[in-house]
Amino acid sequence: MPLKITTETDLIRLLSNSPLQVEMSFMKIKSHTSKNTPVEHMQAFYTDFEEMRDEKYDGMIVTGAPVEQFDFEEVSYWDEVTEIFDWARTHVTSTLYICWAAQAGLYHHYGIPKYPLEKKMFGIFEHRALEPLHAIFRGFDDCFYVPHSRHTELRREDILKNPELTLLSESKEAGVYMVMARGGREFFVTGHSEYSPLTLDSEYQRDLERGLEIELPRNYYLDDDPEKGPVVRWRAHANLLFSNWLNYFVYQETPFNINDIQ
């Protein structure tokens, strides 16, 4: 997550919207120093993986990173992050991988490749659940909306070829959205359901200021006019997604003695 404080706030807001009491810890890796987050913040709130590796956790969220246009092995912290992916399988009840992390997790664990897009997938897109009775979709409408902001994609045919993976949701425009593995111990989500109302606007304005080629985020601004602000249509889905994950795949699945996770 390039803007850690913003992402923390977005995720905490969603995780807090539950009757379950949630206590959070933030993990960092030694082989990477954040460029956009004050050192004081990292020192105050984050703990190195090495200091956490002997603990076990109900759930874990692995966020995205602005490295998706690199090959996975070219990422400077690839070895350390894949060590964490492997560790999570025996130390965490359920892991939720978001955006680049979803692509990285699927590649590392299941050999699923990513593909470059001709132009950035950027905006709010309609999705459907392929297994609408699945617990992760409890309370969902027949169609729901998700923000996307990425330069690469996964392809459904690669997911469907692997019997260990279940394609749970996709979009006609945005493609693969949610994949499940290990009976819900791993979820891979390619979009950014956690985004606040103004996140896409901030990304759009940032890229304009940098002189980058960027199209208007699709289906986002009222009348496609940035001056009129966004039409927010994904927050209900986001709250259900995180509360369902916490309830059905974290809280109800974690053994009474957390050390029994394996």
From TrEMBL:
The record marks E68 as: Important for acyl-CoA specificity. The keyword Nucleus does not apply. Substrate binds at K120, S149, R206. Keywords: Acyltransferase, Amino-acid biosynthesis, Cytoplasm, Methionine biosynthesis, Transferase. The record marks S149 as: Important for substrate specificity. The active site is at C99 (acyl-thioester intermediate), H192 (proton acceptor), E194. One of its GO terms (biological process) is L-methionine biosynthetic process from homoserine via O-succinyl-L-homoserine and cystathionine. It catalyses: L-homoserine + acetyl-CoA = O-acetyl-L-homoserine + CoA. Its main location: cytoplasm. InterPro entries: Class_I_gatase-like, HST_MetA, MetA_family. Pathway: Amino-acid biosynthesis; L-methionine biosynthesis via de novo pathway; O-acetyl-L-homoserine from L-homoserine: step 1/1. The keyword Transferase applies. It is found in: Cytoplasm. GO terms for molecular function: homoserine O-acetyltransferase activity; homoserine O-succinyltransferase activity. One of its GO terms (cellular component) is cytoplasm. Its EC number is 2.3.1.31. It holds the Pfam family HTS. Belongs to the MetA family. NCBIfam families: metA. Transfers an acetyl group from acetyl-CoA to L-homoserine, forming acetyl-L-homoserine. This is Homoserine O-acetyltransferase. It comes from Bacteroides reticulotermitis JCM 10512. The gene is metAA.
